[in-house]
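Design review, sub-item: ligand-bound model
Attendees: FS, YL, KQ
YL presented the inputs for the 1,6-di-O-phosphono-alpha-D-glucopyranose complex:
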Amino acid sequence: MDNQIVTIQTQPFEGQKPGTSGLRKKVKVFQQPHYLENFVQSVMNTISVEDRTTLVVGGDGRFHNDIAVQTILKMALANGFKKVIVGINGLVSTPAASHLIRKYNAIGGLVLSASHNPAGPNEDFGIKFNNASGSPAPEGVTNAIFENTQAINEYLISDMDAVDISDAQEIDLNDMVVQVVDSVADYTELMQSLFDFDALKQGFASGQLSICFDAMHAVTGPYAKSIFEATLGAAEGSVINAAPLTDFGGGHPDPNLVHAKELIDIMSQDSAPALGAASDGDGDRNLITGKGCFVSPSDSLAVIALNHRAIPQFKNGLAGVARSMPTSTALDRVAQTLSLDCYETPTGWKFFGNLLDAGKVALCGEESFGTSGDHVREKDGIWAVLCWLSIMLESNKSPESLLRDLWQQTGRSYYCRHDYEGVEGDKANQLLAELTDSLPTLAGTEVSGLMVKAADVFSYSDPVDDSVSNNQGVRVFFENGSRVVFRLSGTGTDSATIRVYLERVENDPQQCDEDAQEATKALGEIAKQLSKMEALTGMTAPTVIT
Ligand code: G16
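KQ shared the predicted structure:
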């Protein structure tokens, strides 16, 4: 093919700073001329010319995915990449993208997704760069990308026609090869290597296992169909909302109690299958529920850790475990019971990358419905479901009784997250600033009957590369072991969201049956009081409780 490389003059856009997980903005923002190109060029500028070997590209299939993929192919060619691996029709789940990067020894990947945020012409789009280990780029790299976006004055792009990526094939563009891969097949093969598929198959055949998996019309539908139905023999129709749609069917593919209501309703019926699960827009998050029994993400992580020997990937033991700071301390108690190292990182999967690469941990998780192992460097929704199926099969127990076992052995973290959405950015910043200012005198005071033991702003020193990340959330600890955490979401696309994380630890196994929302209600009031929520934002109650 005879393609011309064109140099386009451009100017920096404001606000191209990657957040918790890449750059997320409204589609309309990404549709502005040069907007996506500026960011992509800024990423490519951080990769030296000799390192521009293989790049992985793909996304969750949301509106604008197709256009963005073609733009990136043209820019990869113009910027001297030798090969681009892309999923059929540009679709790749986030964990599958991480796997492709590792499998094909790519220098990294551009993952197109705004995760659980709604999709469509008036909704959200996103892009992030993952490094050669498949991990979301660490802060040093995202800062370098941001600096590039502020100084950019030109980008390189080929004038070639759109590449046909509708089938698995290799296309030679002379200077660059585009390899279109069936990422569902690659990912299914990976899962097969990590779990005992024969045993799981028998579990489904015997009726011991059954599942309802809600793909929420997002990217995991084909992966879930391939693994649960076609390979493991779950009944046809076990995967619901399986067809990926560019607007996710108008839904909000956030697998939580609010947005996965269809699944929760199915799981509350007498005819419910043994396990209910859902994943999000790009397939990295997961929700786990038994019959009428929601498993909080923090507890799910702790159950997987406690029962890790039932998972073939971990049959030789776990190197260590990690959780993000706001995630409940259930994992810490399991780690203590099993004598495992347990690390506490800031929110953002990228912070687990170094620990995983260094072999310090093999299982990580977050309260935001994310869990994964050391097989990829992203959270992995389907993998978490396979962990639960493996544990249920080996123990012959339901999710509910596995939860009870956890609470019996290590106590229960009653846990709830209150989100205050739609807050003006200035007001949200002011709330966090005033709260931070109040911290030095907080310890030793009593708030609504609870004594404050300590209060601080979480700062993380990475034990592998010694990098320091400050301002990672405000923590208030109480004498009775309860904890309240405040931070601003880094994944929104317009107004600010204040997240308030509530945890009350109950060590008496006889007292573990309360409803989590009820059990943390008083802490929620204390959090409002401490943060002057109503006075500063005008909000009297959270908009979402999970
Ligand atoms: C991303 C990050 C997670 C984080 C979550 C919520 O997930 O990878 O580590 O917990 O955002 O972040 P925030 O509280 O800042 O909104 P995802 O699934 O959105 O890519």
